[in-house]
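ok new one. same drill as before - C-alpha cells go in, u give me an amino acid for every spot. 195 of them this time. try not to just spam alanines like last time pls lmao
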C-alpha cells in the first residue's frame, strides 16, 4: 500500500505568518498532532506540533508571534508512491506523529499514525465487500465477478468483455482502501469484441 492510499486530503495547513494563537486553535479544533507550515507556493517549510505550541506558550506570551518562530525543521516528507510500511518505520525511528506527503515539492496530503493504524484494523471481509459493491455498481447492479481478498491482495475472477473492461475493473479495485494489489482474470474469448 502506498502513501496516496492512506493519506488525509485535502490538507489543513498554515502559512508562516499565521499567528501561534491561530495555529493552536486549528490544532485543538481539528484534533491534529501537527500542522504543516507552507510557503506561498505550497511547499512545506516546517511543522507546527502540539509540542511546539506548548514550548511557544510556556513562560513569556508569544501567542501573537508568527508560527514561523516556533515550527520544527527540518521536516521528514514522503512521496505519494512511498510504501506505507517504510513510512511507518521512519515514523517509529524518528518518533514522528505525522508526515507530510509532497509531490513535486508541493504538499498534497498527510499521513498520520492513525491513518496507518486504520488500514491495519480493516477487516478483510469489509474490504472484499466494498470491492464487490463497487464492481456490482459498475456492472449495473449485477454480480458479474467473484472477489477474494488475502492480506490485502484482491483477486477478481469472472468474464470480461475485452481488455478495456479488464483494465477498468483493475483500476476500480485499486481505489478501495485496504487493497494492496489486484489480480484480474483474463478476457473471456467468447465475449471479446471483434472488428
Amino acid at each position: 500500500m502506498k502513501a496516496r492510499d492512506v493519506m488525509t486530503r485535502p490538507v489543513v495547513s498554515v502559512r508562516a505568518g499565521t499567528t501561534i494563537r491561530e495555529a493552536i486553535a486549528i490544532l485543538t479544533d481539528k484534533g491534529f498532532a501537527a500542522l504543516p507550515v507552507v510557503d506561498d507556493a505550497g511547499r512545506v517549510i516546517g511543522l507546527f506540533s502540539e509540542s511546539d505550541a506548548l514550548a511557544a506558550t510556556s513562560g513569556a506570551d508569544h501567542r501573537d508571534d508568527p508560527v514561523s518562530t516556533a515550527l520544527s525543521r527540518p521536516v521528514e516528507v514522503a512521496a505519494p508512491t512511498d510504501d506505507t510500511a517504510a513510512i511507518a518505520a521512519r515514523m517509529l525511528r524518528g518518533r514522528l506523529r505525522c508526515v507530510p506527503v509532497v509531490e513535486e515539492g508541493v504538499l498534497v496530503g498527510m499521513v498520520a499514525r492513525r491513518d496507518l493504524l486504520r488500514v491495519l484494523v480493516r477487516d478483510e471481509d469489509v474490504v472484499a465487500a466494498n470491492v464487490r459493491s463497487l464492481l456490482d455498481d459498475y456492472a449495473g447492479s449485477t454480480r458479474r465477478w467473484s472477489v477474494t481478498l488475502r492480506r490485502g491482495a484482491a483477486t477478481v475472477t469472472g468474464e470480461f468483455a475485452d481488455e478495456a473492461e479488464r483494465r477498468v475493473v483493475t483500476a476500480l479495485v485499486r481505489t478501495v482502501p485496504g487493497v494492496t494489489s489486484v489480480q484480474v482474470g483474463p478476457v473471456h474469448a467468447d465475449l471479446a469484441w471483434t472488428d
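The beta strands are 14-15, 34-38, 44-49, 98-103, 106-112, 145-150, 153-158, 181-184. and btw The longest strand covers residues 106-112.
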